[in-house]
């Protein structure tokens, strides 16, 4: 939850900076998904169309 709060609203993009196209987000490690969600939100708000994401690793919680 804390990580989600840390990145909530942290990203922005001026409309028109990236041409309108279908985009795939790429991230090295997903812990909570907060960074991918925020990136998708910012890109969508700028008029982009995020169609998916690709990650190299998914972090597992410590037991």
Topology:
Elements: H1 2-7, E1 22-30, H2 34-45, E2 49-58
Parallel strand pairs: 1-2
List the keywords.
2 strands; 29% helix; ComF/GntX_DNA_util-trans; two-stranded parallel sheet; PRTase_dom
Number of domains: 1
**Biggest sheet character:** 2 strands, parallel
Count of helical regions: 2
Q: Which spans have pLDDT < 50 for at least 5 consecutive residues? A: none
The helix content, as a percent range, equals 25-40%
User: How large is the share of residues in beta strands?
Assistant: 25-35%
Give the number of DSSP strands: 2
- What sequence of helices (H) and strands (E) makes up the elements? HEHE
Mean pLDDT: 86
Distance between termini?
A: 18 Å
The order of strands across the largest sheet is: 1-2
What is the radius of gyration?
13 Å
Judged by helices, strands and strand pairing, the structural class is alpha+beta
Which word captures the global form?
elongated
InterPro entries: ComF/GntX_DNA_util-trans (IPR051910), PRTase-like (IPR029057), PRTase_dom (IPR000836)
Pfam families: Pribosyltran (PF00156)
Family: Belongs to the ComF/GntX family.
Question: What would you say this structure looks like, in words?
Answer:
The chain has 63 residues and is α+β, with helices and mostly antiparallel strands. The protein has one domain. A two-stranded parallel ribbon has the order 1-2. Helix 2 links the parallel strand 1 and strand 2. The two termini are 18 Å apart. The mean pLDDT is 86.
